[in-house]
Amino acid sequence: METTQDYKITGFWIWVKRGIYRLWKKIDKDDVLSEVNRLGFDIFKITLNDDNNIKFLSPKSSDKMYIVNKQYVIDKNINTFIVFQHAENGNSKLTIVNHDYRYDFEMPGKTSDIMKDLFEDKVEEDRNKMEVEIMSNITASLEIVLADFKIQLEKGLI
Fold first, then answer.
1. What whole-number distance in Å separates Cα of residue 11 and Cα of residue 16?
2. Cβ atoms < 10 Å from Cβ of 29
């Protein structure tokens, strides 16, 4: 005959087993990409690191990221676009599109997070390069202004 104490111990172990099972289900295992998803991911990485492409971020509300060739601004016939829409719930989508075709890829959660991090790191790297260039141009411009003021001081114009 089982006692109340036996029921408590059995109930405790059932509770522990359920907790371990729930935790196991939440562990993020590595994504297994299909061949098509692997190709989409590779295209994303190549275009992301191509300096002939411009990277755009949309407002935080939509979480879209765009990769567009710089030549598109000049020649509208060059028009392959990469659109990556990251979603925290795992429904992330990669779209490769031009006037002839459109490919949509559903990207798994971990791969999607990697793609988001790659994109944000590249945008930050490009922004830093641009800031250094802008600041060096400002320094050069200020040196020219300073030289002009010195010349005007020497001539007594100021």
1. 9
2. 9
Beta-carbon count within 10 A of 126 CB: 13
Task: Write the pLDDT tens digit of every residue in 133-157.
Answer: 888 878 778 888 899 889 888 888 7
Note whether 57 and 123 are within 8 A (CB). Answer: yes
Instruction: Single out the residue of 137, 139, 140, 158 nearest to residue 149, CA to CA.
Output: 158
Which residue blocks in the chain are alpha helix, DSSP H?
Answer: 4-26, 35-48, 109-155
- Structure tokens that stand for 2 in this block: 């089982």
Look up residue 144 and give its two tokens. Answer: 């020219």
| DSSP notation for 40-62 | HHHHHHHHHT-TTEEEEE--TTT
pTM over 0.70: no
The two tokens of residue 51 are: 């300096």
pLDDT in tens, 4-59: 555 556 667 777 777 776 666 555 556 678 888 899 999 899 888 888 888 887 76
Are the CB atoms for 84 and 119 separated by under 8 Å? yes
